[in-house]
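Fold Annotation — chain and its backbone

Encoding — discrete vocabulary of local shapes
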Amino acid sequence: MRRYTSLLLTAFLLFILVVAGSAYFAGAGHEGKTRPLREIVVYTTLPAEHAAILNNAYEASHNVRINFVPLSSDEVLKRLQGQAESGGEGAAAMVLADKGTLSQAAVAGYLTPYLSEAGDQVPEEFRQIDGYWVGVWYDPIVFCMNKDYLLTLPLVPDTWKELAAQPKMRVGVTDFLAADASANLFLSMLAQFGDAATYDIWRQIHPKVVQYARYLSNPVRQAGMGEVDVAIAVESEAIRYMQGGYPLKIVYPADGTAAMVTGTGIAYKAKPADATTAKEFADWLLSDEAQQALQKQDFYFVPTNPGTLAYKSFAGKNMILFDQPVNFTAQQRHDFLDKWVKEVRFK
């Protein structure tokens, strides 16, 4: 009896070892499949939601994790400066940010040039000529009009002066002090039209503004609900609401408009292996796959790469953008906005 008990105990222990070993190797195999082959750090001024969409799509298709670090423009520049001035290799491999941040980083020597076949297709207006940064998409300001209001017009206003002069019109716009895209519009108009013409346009528009919104989406929602007739808004929000069935029509300003350009730059002193991975990710951001990932989540931007299907499908891809650079100092920007507040917004 003792002999059978010993045999049963031995068999039970062997069974436990087999089960434990199978679980271990199954877990090891699963871990090997899900763990990314590489990870890189990317500083970004994008909203966290956009960054998460891009990371999930890229990791799923390339088995590379993009560890985005959301920062303000000043914080990005400060961290890049610390990396550039450090004695060794830095943590960040890439920057995905607005054109203004990238331009400052390039001038300061915080980026290293990268030229590729994909980047070379991007028009020169959306990239630094020596390859220090390349735009991947842009989001222009448009006139987003309620369709019922359009039916009442004998002639649709399609310039800034015509819009400003339009009588009995209700306007929705995001406050220039509330969002970078809205402030960029005002400053771009100053660069393009000059001080006098720009302030005159906004003095005429101001009495028709129903509300200066805090968020970029609010003016478009108001136009879709019939609370305003025209929203001066980013195209991405206009398309999102149109996709949702709101009765809206986009009118592209014939005399030009401003756009927020988002682009990439390879960080100076990035680890060589990380820099190589970052370059591959930068090229992927210029592809249809990246745009499709964003569009599946209702984010619609205009690609800078004219070779993509996403670019070819955009109705407004031939819109006129302002061509004068916004080269104002921080003090000048402050003074222009302060003048708008005092002489237009709260006069």
In short: The chain has two domains: 38-138+260-312, 139-258+322-345. The longest strand covers residues 134-146.
